[in-house]
Design goal:
538 residues; alpha+beta; four-stranded mixed β-sheet; 17 helices
Length: 538
């Protein structure tokens, strides 16, 4: 460790000890009543719909605002995870879906109040949903994926009843109302700070949370820390109980070693953004609980730009898929901490009607050479393989192994490690030929993945694939209400993706939640952040 790095680390540790241990109002709270969460990222806004919002800010808003509905939870690999198929009421006491699937009716909890004591009404819900689809924000593109596009779709029936109408029975309309963007805002408070230039009070709401959620904001220092106080009148709990901690301190500690040290010493309660090797080391020492959950709504992949020769040829893409050293990549990048998506054997009835599915790909250099010859490139070719600096811990060892293996079939690779902003720009402009990236879907159903990441001239279609069959199947599945027919479409999509190989799914990395043994209730959530409401002290 250099002197400069050591100085920064010690300074961060001193700051953490001050804020987490004895600063101001925290002194009055007992250790058992306070959750102390440390992260390398920052909370940059209290309004999750603002462009540029960090995932850490999503975690804050999930606790300070309610939505009409929320996701239930289920067990996966022995851990609790959110359940897309078990939507329950949050601000809504209950909801009904009409037989034709075109009308959703929500019945609000009559005792629900905003944190200033103002009753929550259907007018607040309508104004909030109108804002979500109308304001220039992150909310409108997300809600569009559930056919929620216009204020005309939201109707006040009475003071505690709201109806949402759909043009078609979109299977993702209801789940979209459980995402972080569909927050219900105290409209009276927000309107008081609206202006003709800012009719949705976006400027004010960046720094003021006026919700009905489990916590209110005591302190908000963007980029440094947020302190939350439990709302004793919260009505959205299930089962009906208040949030487990009276106080939450979420603090930014940029240095990963300092974050790990704080939790190991008991000065912080939980961290989720350590490197895989650090999480493994802490687990082996046996003092902390390490909950490793494969990120089942996320995928790391190798992608091709199918617009750029020679990657416009499926045989070239398939050749590379047959030339990757999958096991070595998995060990080098993740120390084996995750779910591999390679080495599968598809039998009768496969693939499963889910996304992603483990692929029937494995290292086979002879087959790779044959496929290159079929593509008219028996001597191989030269290309670049790119990744962004923020991924270096996992992508750098991957890149070295990929280059070494592809050289054996005549493909000469130059590795490009690019600044995050440059990489993002090049991907948006479709100028990167061969690279690694990751995708995540808040609503991990097959049609959602394929519509958002494999169709259209959009940034998230990393491979720029434009296949009529994928377009048709994904579009039809979106509105399919028959489960058997939907599964048939999902299987067909998976088979088509394997044949075209626009991307090679590699794995679903673990999210390692490292916490004190006294912390209970951790649930892996769709936004891959801690839901403070779930946690309690044993």
């Amino acid at each position: 460790m250099t002197p400069t790095t050591l100085t920064r680390t010690l300074a961060a540790a001193a700051l953490a000890a001050t804020v987490l241990g004895a600063a101001g109002p925290a002194r009055a709270q007992s250790r058992a009543e306070t959750l102390r969460y440390v992260t390398g990222a920052t909370v940059n806004t209290l309004d999750p719909t603002m462009p540029g919002t960090t995932r850490e800010a999503f975690a804050i808003s999930l606790s300070t605002y309610d939505r009409l509905v929320t996701f239930g939870r289920k067990q996966l690999c022995g851990n609790w995870v959110f359940d897309l198929d078990a939507v329950r009421g949050e601000l809504a006491e209950r909801y009904e879906v009409s037989p034709d699937g075109l009308t959703l009716t929500f019945f609000l909890r009559k005792n629900a109040r905003f944190q200033d004591g103002t009753p929550v009404t259907a007018e607040d819900v309508k104004w909030s949903l109108d804002r979500a689809v109308s304001a220039k924000s992150l909310a409108a593109p997300q809600l569009l994926t559930g056919s929620l596009t216009s204020p005309d779709q939201f109707k006040v029936v009475d003071a505690h009843t709201v109806q949402v109408t759909l043009p078609k029975p979109d299977r993702l309309a209801l789940p979209n109302l459980a995402t972080v963007y569909a927050i219900i805002i105290n409209s009276k408070a927000a309107k008081a700070h609206a202006t003709p230039e800012d009719p949705w009070a976006q400027g004010w709401l960046k720094e003021h949370a006026v919700g009905s959620g489990a916590y209110s904001v005591d302190v908000f220092k963007p980029g440094e820390q947020v302190v939350l106080r439990r709302n004793p009148d919260w009505t959205g709990a299930a089962p009906d109980k208040p949030a487990g901690f009276k106080r939450v301190i979420a603090q930014t500690i940029p240095d990963a070693a300092t974050r790990a040290n704080l939790v190991e010493k008991g000065d912080a309660d939980i961290v989720i953004d350590l490197q895989a090797n650090d999480a493994q080391a802490l687990k082996e020492r046996g003092k902390l609980t390490v909950t490793a959950t494969p990120q089942f709504n996320a995928v790391t992949f190798v992608s091709f730009n199918t617009r750029m020769p020679p990657f416009d040829k499926p045989e070239v893409r398939q050749a590379i898929a047959a030339a990757l050293p999958y096991d070595a990549l998995f060990k080098a990048a993740l120390f084996g901490r995750g779910k591999p998506l390679f080495g599968a054997t598809w039998g009768e009835g496969d693939p499963a009607p889910t996304f992603p599915v483990p692929q029937p790909v494995s290292l086979d250099l002879a087959r790779a050479k044959t496929l290159l010859a079929e593509a008219g490139l028996p001597e191989g070719f030269s290309t670049t393989f790119s990744f962004n600096v923020g991924q270096a811990a996992t992508a750098e060892p991957m890149a070295a192994l990929i280059r070494e293996s592809l050289e054996k079939i005549g493909i000469r690779v130059e590795i490009q490690k690019l600044p995050d902003a440059q990489m993002s720009t090049l991907i948006s402009e479709k100028k990167v030929p061969f690279f690694t990236e990751g995708i995540v879907a808040w609503l991990p159903s097959p049609d959602y993945f394929y519509r958002n990441f494999y169709t259209g001239n959009q940034r998230w279609n990393y491979s720029s694939i434009d296949d009529p069959e994928i377009n048709r199947l994904a579009g039809e599945a979106r509105f399919e209400r028959d489960p058997a027919k939907y599964d048939d479409a999902a299987r067909a999509l998976n088979r088509r993706a394997l044949a075209l190989m626009p991307q090679i799914p590699l794995w679903q990395a673990n999210q390692d939640a490292v916490m004190l043994p006294t912390v209970a209730g951790y649930t892996y959530q769709f936004h891959r952040q801690v839901d403070y409401r779930d946690l309690s002290r044993r």
